[in-house]
Design a protein that fits this description.
Layout (H helix, E strand, L loop, with lengths): L13 H7 L10 H12 L4 E7 L4 E5 H17 L7 E5 L5 H12 L2 E4 L6 H11 L1 E7 L2 H13 L6 E5 L9 E2 H6 L16 E6 L9 E5 L2 H12 L7 E4 L6 H6 L2 H5 L3 E6 L6 H11 L3 E3 L2 H9 L12 E4 L6 H11 L3 E5 L8 E2 L13 E2 L5 E4 L12 E5 L13 E4 L2 E3 L8 E9 L5 E6 L4 E3 L2 E3 L1 H8 L5 E11 L3 E10 L7 H14 L8 E4 L13 H20 L5 E4 L5 H11 L20 H7 L6 E7 L2 E10 L8 E8 L8 H16 L4 E7 L3 H9 L3 E12 L2 E11 L1
């Protein structure tokens, strides 16, 4: 089969592959006829699909059976008015009927729109109206049917019909799709007018700065996945491939149908019950014996926690992952258990695999690998020029005026037309930031927009924010990703409450459940933080990268703190600390990056250790030190006003050695000073000045109740650069 589309299928090295890979796309290419029917004719009994679920049901389909069933389905859909160009939405989870339906729609020329079974009525209504859906095919599932019916009460003027799968008792208003597959004519082959340039498939993106976009792929799209399946996943002709994903996501197109069938591999379609069970996944792998596998890093982690053994994976010859960053530690541990290396890959709903660990070179744990030969890929800076190895750049696809790769989207559907995805220079921008090492390996940094990659899900903030903002307690909110050891990231909501509401565990749970009810449950915020205000740009946009950095800094601090061999000792400074304190202040100059900078942050104007200690311990003044194994690694002072008009106020200065900045020392020093000031009773206002670039320090102060009251322009001068100082007060 591959020889029909590739002049050359074998390559000696990655360099040979990159230079000489060529793809030939027939002008009338149709996956249904050129692949499914071709296999049905040449090898009619060749296994195409091995399907099972968590209830003991199983089914094996050959290419001949897929060909016949899809023709029957196509003829039935045509009789119900579905025609070339119509949009058909499918909510079928991982039912075997999805494969039949997709091929049937490709025969007709109708545009398939896969949709996740976790979508709510609001999500479905938006998609139906935005795409102008004409026909809906859904699985008989209480949740799915309820959401569909609720959605169609408010929208769906374009809809001409809807059908249910696996509903033998029938349901008013729905057609019986399963019955149509059991009997009926199957003479229709395909619309003869179709070409490779016709629209075949629409994926809805996760949505970042707005509602989800419609990614449009044409009939050449499946050929783009030859690289995905045959050279990255390394599926085998006559083998069995498992990619664990719901049919509503683009990853299904990557790993469950197109490239795999072109490569001659059968698909292991395992329909998971509503909740993923790692133990059950291991049982399925042992029983069905796939030869190749591609699952998210989270699934590998969960299976290892369940006691995965080499015997469980004895049939597997090649493992892949994509959709979320993969830690080097997980890769190494998995290899120790199974003897297999996980080959990471990278791509988007907008295309096939863009960067991957191909078979000609040794993967480097944590790296996504090297570029696919199908695309002219580069990393570019803000000026659009390629960056040097080691420098951060955005991954782009260039030269689209010279060659438009099969597999890359043809544009986004907006309103009533297709809007090209390339810019005026014929470049497609992925929006993902990476760097390349000297050997050509690519390393993922993060997205330059606000996508959240939680397990295998890509979650945009806009839909969650739009839901939260309908709750009466929420005044403003921002959704960002927060680091998580199991999922890579989790959804975090930073919320400003309306007047009359106070933060509480009860309110947090209420908001989480509210999001679960109003949108897909996997999108709910697992972390909720309440703040008094959200930092914004001058144009009023929330500065999300500051929120993300604060979460990352806090996570890093908690991780390193948990590994600390000895907890720091926080205590008042004593006369005997004079020499050690002066040594600390001499060391801290220029390297501290906490509440304020250098030795000036602590100690007033004293020139000796004794003078500093005396000047900072009179009246309401306090001087604290933090010790680790007898070494002073942090210090903080509280200096009160000594004249009556300002005697109720005090300023806090704090410095921590940079190598100890993630051990929670700053938090402990600040907590001690605040508690001491409250006990004294004389002080009413505490003030700190925080660098405007130090979001972790500002976030910490806000957690203690500090609020920003102003800003000192160019207050700090660090490493040759001026930084503004945020003035923050705590009213006791």
């Amino acid at each position: 089969m591959l020889e029909r589309f590739l002049p050359r299928t074998e390559f000696d090295s990655y360099e040979d592959f990159k230079k000489n890979y060529r793809l030939c796309c027939p002008a009338d290419f149709n996956f249904a006829t050129h692949v499914v029917d071709a296999w049905a004719e040449s090898e009619p009994d060749k296994r195409a699909l091995e399907w099972c679920d968590d209830y003991g049901h199983s089914l094996t389909l050959t290419f001949r059976e897929v060909s016949t069933l899809s023709r029957r389905a196509a003829q039935w859909l045509l009789a119900r008015g579905v025609k070339k160009g119509d949009r058909v939405m499918c909510l079928l989870k991982r039912r075997w009927e999805y494969w039949i339906t997709a091929v049937a729609l490709h025969r007709i020329g109708a545009v398939i729109i896969p949709a996740s079974y976790q979508l709510t009525a609001k999500d479905i209504a938006y998609r139906v109206d935005a795409a102008g859906v004409r026909f809906l095919i859904a699985l008989q599932d209480d949740w799915i049917v309820a959401q569909c019916e609720a959605a169609l009460e408010k929208c769906g003027k374009s809809l001409t019909g809807k059908a249910l799968v696996n509903c033998p008792e029938g349901r008013p208003g729905w057609l019986d799709y399963s019955a149509a597959l059991e009997r009926g004519p199957s003479g229709f082959v395909a619309d003869a007018s179709l070409t490779a340039q016709d629209l075949m498939l629409i994926y809805f993106t996760s949505g970042t700065s707005g509602m989800p976009k419609m990614v449009c792929h044409n009939y050449a799209y499946p050929l783009g996945h030859i690289v995905t399946a045959c050279y990255w996943q390394q599926v085998q002709n006559g083998g069995l491939h498992l990619t664990g994903v719901d049919s509503g996501w683009a990853k299904f197109g990557w790993g469950c149908i197109y490239g795999q069938w072109i490569g001659g591999s059968a698909i292991l379609g395992y329909e998971v019950d509503h909740k993923f069970d790692a133990k059950r996944m291991i049982e399925v792998i042992r029983e069905k014996r796939p030869t190749t596998l591609c699952v998210p890093g989270t699934v590998y982690r969960f299976m290892m926690r369940e006691g995965l053994t080499a015997e469980d994976f004895s049939s597997v010859t090649h493992c892949c992952t994509a959709g979320e960053p993969l830690s080097p530690e997980l890769t190494r541990e998995f290899a120790e258990i199974t003897g297999l290396t996980i080959h990471e890959g990278y791509g988007q709903s907008e295309g096939s695999v863009l960067v991957a660990n191909f078979g000609w070179f040794q993967p480097r744990p944590g790296s996504m690998g090297k570029p696919s030969p199908l695309y002219d890929i580069a990393l570019v800076g803000e000026d659009g020029r390629p960056v040097a190895p080691g420098d951060e750049g955005e991954l782009v696809v260039r030269g689209l005026d010279k060659y438009y790769p099969e597999g890359l989207l043809r544009g986004y559907w907006v309103g009533d037309r297709l809007v090209p995805a390339e810019d005026e220079n014929h470049i497609y921008h992925t929006g993902d930031m990476m760097w390349m090492d000297e050997d050509g390996y690519y390393w993922f940094i993060g997205r330059n927009d606000d996508i959240i990659k939680c397990s295998a899900y890509r979650i945009g903030p806009f839909e969650i924010e739009s839901v939260l903002l309908t709750h009466p307690a929420v005044h403003e909110c921002a959704i960002t990703g927060a680091p998580d050891p199991m999922r890579g990231q989790v959804v975090k909501a930073t919320i400003v409450l309306e007047k009359g509401y106070e933060p509480s565990e009860r309110l947090t749970k209420e908001l989480q459940n509210y999001v679960k009810r109003m949108t897909a449950p996997y999108k709910y915020p697992r972390v909720v933080e309440y703040v008094e205000h959200l930092e914004k740009t001058t144009s009023g946009k929330i500065i999300r990268n500051h929120l993300r950095k604060a979460s990352e800094d806090a996570y890093r601090a908690s991780q390193e703190g948990s590994r600390a061999a000895e907890k720091p000792v926080i205590r008042p400074a004593a006369a005997g600390d004079a020499v050690a304190l002066l040594t600390f202040l001499g060391t801290i100059g220029g390297v501290n990056s906490f509440l304020s900078y250098g030795a000036q942050a602590v100690g007033g104007s004293g020139h000796s250790g004794e003078e500093i200690i005396r000047s900072c311990t009179r009246g309401s003044d306090r001087l604290l030190i933090a010790e680790v194994e007898g070494q002073i690694v942090g210090a903080a002072d509280l200096r009160a006003g000594h004249r009556p008009p300002i005697a109720h106020t005090a300023e806090i200065g704090l410095s921590v050695l940079r190598q100890y900045s993630s051990r929670g020392i700053g938090r402990a020093l600040l907590e001690y000073l605040i508690a001491d000031a409250r006990r004294g009773g004389r002080l009413q206002v505490l003030s700190v000045t925080v660098s405007a670039t130090d979001t972790a320090a500002a976030s910490l102060c806000r957690r203690f109740g500090f609020t920003q009251i102003g800003c000192y322009p160019k207050f700090f001068h660090v490493d040759g650069k001026y930084q503004d100082g945020l003035i923050m007060n705590l009213y006791l």
